[in-house]
Amino acid sequence: GAGVSQSPSNKVTEKGKDVELRCDPISGHTALYWYRQSLGQGLEFLIYFQGNSAPDKSGLPSDRFSAERTGGSVSTLTIQRTQQEDSAVYLCASSLGATRDTQYFGPGTRLTVL
Amino acid sequence: AQKITQTQPGMFVQEKEAVTLDCTYDTSDQSYGLFWYKQPSSGEMIFLIYQGSYDEQNATEGRYSLNFQKARKSANLVISASQLGDSAMYFCAMRERGTGNQFYFGTGTSLTVIP
Protein backbone atom coordinates (compact mmCIF):
# COMPACT_ATOMS: atom_id res chain seq x y z
CA GLY A 1 0.00 0.00 0.00
CA ALA A 2 0.96 3.64 -0.26
CA GLY A 3 3.25 5.04 2.36
CA VAL A 4 3.38 8.50 3.89
CA SER A 5 3.81 11.16 1.26
CA GLN A 6 4.95 14.74 1.64
CA SER A 7 4.95 17.67 -0.69
CA PRO A 8 6.83 19.52 -1.91
CA SER A 9 10.03 17.50 -1.66
CA ASN A 10 12.06 20.70 -1.81
CA LYS A 11 11.07 24.27 -1.10
CA VAL A 12 13.24 27.33 -1.48
CA THR A 13 11.78 30.56 -0.20
CA GLU A 14 12.83 34.04 0.72
CA LYS A 15 13.06 35.24 4.27
CA GLY A 16 9.75 36.65 5.42
CA LYS A 17 7.56 34.57 3.12
CA ASP A 18 4.99 32.05 4.35
CA VAL A 19 5.26 28.37 3.40
CA GLU A 20 2.90 25.41 3.60
CA LEU A 21 4.11 21.84 3.85
CA ARG A 22 1.73 18.97 3.22
CA CYS A 23 1.60 15.46 4.62
CA ASP A 24 -0.60 12.60 3.44
CA PRO A 25 -0.50 9.85 6.07
CA ILE A 26 -1.14 6.18 5.53
CA SER A 27 -4.85 5.57 5.25
CA GLY A 28 -6.39 4.58 8.57
CA HIS A 29 -3.55 5.88 10.70
CA THR A 30 -4.99 7.88 13.55
CA ALA A 31 -1.74 9.43 14.75
CA LEU A 32 0.28 11.99 12.80
CA TYR A 33 3.53 13.63 13.82
CA TRP A 34 5.63 16.49 12.50
CA TYR A 35 9.36 16.71 13.18
CA ARG A 36 12.14 19.02 12.12
CA GLN A 37 15.65 17.79 11.44
CA SER A 38 18.57 20.12 10.88
CA LEU A 39 21.61 18.85 9.02
CA GLY A 40 23.35 16.11 10.97
CA GLN A 41 21.06 16.54 13.95
CA GLY A 42 18.37 14.49 15.62
CA LEU A 43 14.63 14.81 15.34
CA GLU A 44 12.97 17.83 16.89
CA PHE A 45 9.34 17.12 17.74
CA LEU A 46 6.93 19.79 16.53
CA ILE A 47 3.33 18.62 16.84
CA TYR A 48 1.28 15.43 17.32
CA PHE A 49 -2.29 14.69 16.26
CA GLN A 50 -4.09 11.67 17.69
CA GLY A 51 -7.58 10.97 16.44
CA ASN A 52 -10.05 13.62 17.52
CA SER A 53 -8.03 14.69 20.54
CA ALA A 54 -6.60 18.17 20.84
CA PRO A 55 -3.16 18.18 19.22
CA ASP A 56 0.00 18.25 21.29
CA LYS A 57 1.59 21.49 20.14
CA SER A 58 4.27 21.57 22.80
CA GLY A 59 7.11 21.30 20.29
CA LEU A 60 6.23 24.23 18.07
CA PRO A 61 9.18 26.63 18.38
CA SER A 62 7.25 29.86 17.95
CA ASP A 63 3.85 31.25 17.08
CA ARG A 64 4.99 31.46 13.46
CA PHE A 65 4.47 27.71 13.28
CA SER A 66 1.02 26.15 13.07
CA ALA A 67 -0.45 22.91 11.81
CA GLU A 68 -3.83 21.49 11.12
CA ARG A 69 -5.18 18.11 10.22
CA THR A 70 -8.35 18.09 8.20
CA GLY A 71 -10.81 15.23 8.44
CA GLY A 72 -8.35 13.14 10.40
CA SER A 73 -6.22 12.66 7.32
CA VAL A 74 -4.11 15.21 5.46
CA SER A 75 -2.05 17.62 7.53
CA THR A 76 -0.56 20.99 6.65
CA LEU A 77 2.31 22.61 8.52
CA THR A 78 2.45 26.36 7.99
CA ILE A 79 5.43 28.54 8.75
CA GLN A 80 4.74 32.26 8.62
CA ARG A 81 7.39 34.94 8.05
CA THR A 82 10.10 32.36 7.51
CA GLN A 83 13.55 32.92 8.96
CA GLN A 84 16.87 31.45 7.89
CA GLU A 85 16.97 29.29 11.03
CA ASP A 86 13.81 27.56 9.79
CA SER A 87 15.91 25.87 7.10
CA ALA A 88 15.75 22.13 7.76
CA VAL A 89 14.13 18.92 6.65
CA TYR A 90 10.56 18.63 7.88
CA LEU A 91 9.50 15.04 8.42
CA CYS A 92 5.99 13.75 8.81
CA ALA A 93 5.13 10.35 10.27
CA SER A 94 1.93 8.46 10.90
CA SER A 95 0.99 5.44 12.93
CA LEU A 96 -1.87 3.47 14.32
CA GLY A 97 -2.85 4.45 17.84
CA ALA A 98 -1.58 1.66 20.05
CA THR A 99 1.59 1.76 22.10
CA ARG A 100 3.16 -1.04 20.11
CA ASP A 101 2.57 0.55 16.73
CA THR A 102 5.58 1.98 14.95
CA GLN A 103 5.70 5.23 13.05
CA TYR A 104 6.07 5.29 9.30
CA PHE A 105 7.93 8.28 7.99
CA GLY A 106 7.53 10.26 4.83
CA PRO A 107 10.50 11.28 2.69
CA GLY A 108 10.53 14.79 4.14
CA THR A 109 10.41 18.30 2.76
CA ARG A 110 13.73 20.10 2.54
CA LEU A 111 13.09 23.78 3.30
CA THR A 112 15.70 26.38 2.44
CA VAL A 113 15.14 29.97 3.50
CA LEU A 114 17.37 32.43 1.69
CA ALA B 1 14.75 15.05 32.06
CA GLN B 2 15.47 13.34 28.79
CA LYS B 3 13.12 10.51 28.03
CA ILE B 4 15.63 8.77 25.77
CA THR B 5 19.41 8.99 26.11
CA GLN B 6 21.89 7.82 23.53
CA THR B 7 25.37 8.51 24.86
CA GLN B 8 27.38 7.47 21.79
CA PRO B 9 27.37 10.21 19.17
CA GLY B 10 29.62 8.15 16.88
CA MET B 11 30.65 4.51 16.65
CA PHE B 12 32.95 2.56 14.38
CA VAL B 13 32.84 -1.18 13.72
CA GLN B 14 34.81 -3.49 11.49
CA GLU B 15 32.84 -5.20 8.76
CA LYS B 16 31.46 -8.60 9.87
CA GLU B 17 31.86 -7.72 13.55
CA ALA B 18 29.01 -7.16 15.98
CA VAL B 19 28.26 -3.75 17.49
CA THR B 20 26.07 -2.55 20.35
CA LEU B 21 24.38 0.84 20.29
CA ASP B 22 23.31 2.07 23.71
CA CYS B 23 19.94 3.46 24.69
CA THR B 24 18.54 4.24 28.11
CA TYR B 25 15.06 5.52 28.79
CA ASP B 26 13.14 7.23 31.53
CA THR B 27 9.52 6.50 32.26
CA SER B 28 7.21 5.82 35.16
CA ASP B 29 4.66 4.24 32.85
CA GLN B 30 4.14 0.49 33.01
CA SER B 31 3.05 0.26 29.39
CA TYR B 32 5.48 1.50 26.82
CA GLY B 33 7.21 0.45 23.64
CA LEU B 34 10.79 0.85 22.53
CA PHE B 35 11.77 1.28 18.89
CA TRP B 36 14.93 1.57 16.86
CA TYR B 37 15.13 3.38 13.54
CA LYS B 38 17.87 3.63 10.96
CA GLN B 39 18.48 6.75 8.89
CA PRO B 40 20.95 6.30 6.04
CA SER B 41 22.51 9.27 4.29
CA SER B 42 19.55 9.26 1.89
CA GLY B 43 17.46 10.61 4.77
CA GLU B 44 14.67 8.06 4.95
CA MET B 45 13.76 6.74 8.40
CA ILE B 46 13.54 2.97 8.50
CA PHE B 47 11.91 1.05 11.34
CA LEU B 48 14.17 -1.77 12.57
CA ILE B 49 12.86 -3.40 15.71
CA TYR B 50 10.31 -3.10 18.52
CA GLN B 51 10.30 -4.20 22.16
CA GLY B 52 7.23 -3.98 24.37
CA SER B 53 7.51 -3.31 28.07
CA TYR B 54 5.68 -6.53 28.85
CA ASP B 55 7.66 -8.67 26.44
CA GLU B 56 9.76 -11.18 28.34
CA GLN B 57 11.92 -12.19 25.42
CA ASN B 58 14.39 -9.88 23.72
CA ALA B 59 13.19 -8.86 20.28
CA THR B 60 15.08 -10.08 17.23
CA GLU B 61 14.75 -9.19 13.55
CA GLY B 62 17.34 -10.81 11.35
CA ARG B 63 20.73 -9.36 12.24
CA TYR B 64 19.15 -6.93 14.71
CA SER B 65 18.42 -7.80 18.31
CA LEU B 66 17.40 -5.67 21.23
CA ASN B 67 19.07 -6.25 24.58
CA PHE B 68 16.23 -5.26 26.89
CA GLN B 69 17.11 -4.78 30.54
CA LYS B 70 13.95 -3.46 32.13
CA ALA B 71 15.30 -2.89 35.63
CA ARG B 72 18.15 -0.84 34.24
CA LYS B 73 15.84 0.88 31.75
CA SER B 74 18.10 0.10 28.85
CA ALA B 75 17.26 -1.07 25.35
CA ASN B 76 20.49 -1.52 23.47
CA LEU B 77 20.51 -2.43 19.79
CA VAL B 78 22.87 -5.19 18.74
CA ILE B 79 23.80 -5.51 15.09
CA SER B 80 25.53 -8.76 14.25
CA ALA B 81 27.80 -9.37 11.26
CA SER B 82 27.99 -5.67 10.32
CA GLN B 83 27.77 -4.77 6.67
CA LEU B 84 28.88 -1.64 4.85
CA GLY B 85 25.23 -0.79 4.28
CA ASP B 86 24.71 -0.55 8.03
CA SER B 87 26.56 2.77 8.07
CA ALA B 88 23.87 5.24 9.10
CA MET B 89 22.37 7.20 11.99
CA TYR B 90 20.46 5.07 14.48
CA PHE B 91 17.72 6.49 16.66
CA CYS B 92 16.18 4.94 19.73
CA ALA B 93 12.60 5.93 20.54
CA MET B 94 9.97 5.25 23.16
CA ARG B 95 6.20 5.42 23.05
CA GLU B 96 4.31 5.75 26.34
CA ARG B 97 0.68 5.00 26.87
CA GLY B 98 0.46 7.50 29.68
CA THR B 99 1.34 10.44 27.44
CA GLY B 100 -1.21 9.54 24.81
CA ASN B 101 1.19 7.30 22.97
CA GLN B 102 3.51 10.17 22.18
CA PHE B 103 6.90 9.23 20.69
CA TYR B 104 10.19 10.37 22.20
CA PHE B 105 13.45 10.14 20.27
CA GLY B 106 17.07 10.08 21.33
CA THR B 107 19.72 12.22 19.70
CA GLY B 108 21.02 9.35 17.62
CA THR B 109 24.25 7.43 17.11
CA SER B 110 26.23 7.63 13.89
CA LEU B 111 27.57 4.20 12.96
CA THR B 112 30.37 3.77 10.46
CA VAL B 113 31.26 0.29 9.23
CA ILE B 114 34.89 0.00 8.20
CA PRO B 115 35.79 -2.42 5.39
Structure commentary:
- The complex is a heterodimer of chains A (114) and B (115).
- Chain A is an all-beta fold.
- In chain A, 0% of the residues lie in helices and 46% in strands.
- Chain A is globular and about 40 Å long.
- Chain B is mainly β and 115 residues long.
- The mean pLDDT of chain B is 94.
- The interface between A and B is medium-sized, with 25 and 25 residues.
Which radius of gyration of chain B do the C-alpha atoms yield? 14 Å
DSSP strand (E) fraction of chain B? over 45%
Question: What is the end-to-end distance of chain A?
Answer: 37 Å
Largest interface: A-B, 25 and 25 residues
Work out the oligomeric state of the chains in this entry. Answer: heterodimer
- What is the string of SSEs of chain A from the N terminus onward? EEEEEEEEEE
Shape of chain A: globular
Q: Helix fraction of chain A? A: under 10%
Biggest pleated sheet of chain A: 6 strands, mixed
Total strand count of chain A, please?
10
The whole-number mean of residue pLDDT values of chain A reads 93
Following the backbone from N to C, one meets helices and strands of chain B in this order, namely EEEEEEEEEEEE
Task: Determine the number of helices of chain B (DSSP H or I, runs of at least 4 residues).
Answer: 0
Q: Give the helix tally of chain A.
A: 0
Query: Ends of chain B: how far apart?
Result: 38 Å
Structural category of chain B: mainly beta
- Structural class by helix and strand composition of chain A: mainly beta
- What is the average of the pLDDT values of chain B? 94
Let me know the largest β-sheet of chain B. 6 strands, mixed
Please provide a brief summary of the model:
Chain A has 114 residues and is mostly beta strands.
